[in-house]
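Quick one: structure tokens for this chain, please?
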Amino acid sequence: MQPMTDHTAQLTLVTGGTGKTGRRVAARLAERGIPVRIGSRNAEPPFDWEDRATWDAALAGARAVYVAYVPDLAVPGADDVIRAFTDRAAAAGVQRLVLLSGRGEPEAEACERIVLEAPGIDATVVRASWFLQNFSESFLQPSIVAGELALPVPAHIREPFIDADDLADVAVAALTEDGHAGEIYEVTGPASLTFAEAAAEIGAATGREVPYVELTLEQFTGALTAEGVPADFIELLSYLFTEVLDGRNAATADGVQRALGRPPRDARAWARAEAGAGAWGTVPHEVAAGA
């Protein structure tokens, strides 16, 4: 396969292009002058994982694709969707594909094999740990603003939380540079923290206490149900918290260093930056000055 040397002519489809990682990938590609097509239901042309009739128009003319499957590669049937999409991508002339995957998920690993073995496509897997941005941009942010982090994760469990900005940098490198085909980049932060330690970093950055409260799974799912969270999303979260966040992923990995030649950002630097940007409300002046 010929290397993609003329980046300005290489249209890239970013599925999940308005999501946590997709919008970061899309922004970085645009900064490099690379044409980007956002893959979302509200884009033009629209893209919907649940409507395969939308795939061909979204893939038309694309030479690279970032694949962020929603809801998650761990859900039943995800491998069939990824296989069908990869086949369509190959038929459309896609040369490079980067798959966002998760650590410790056997179902996700089946999807990884599908893209890595796809003929005619240079595929790269970015296998990620738990995003730090789940604390600042997702369903946990309101709880932290309210004064605590409450989850059904045992206090001793450690996770090497990854900054989504580092993940996006790895994905963009694989989409635009040679030398990443066939790689599985397991991306984590530089150290493993408990959720209480992560909450403490947020507390230090914001100048207030953010205690960690360990819930039972029943307490957690009951609260979500009361808030009107869809049942399928609750089921997915239950799987992630009870199966994936069981300690199996505590070890750090060198994916960021291997892909980019630099270490990942740590949780303290991330928390200070997010606090300074107002992720959890106003930060006292003396705390901001100290950061």
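Strands lie at 12-15, 36-39, 64-67, 96-102, 122-128, 149-151, 158-159, 184-187, 193-194, 212-214.
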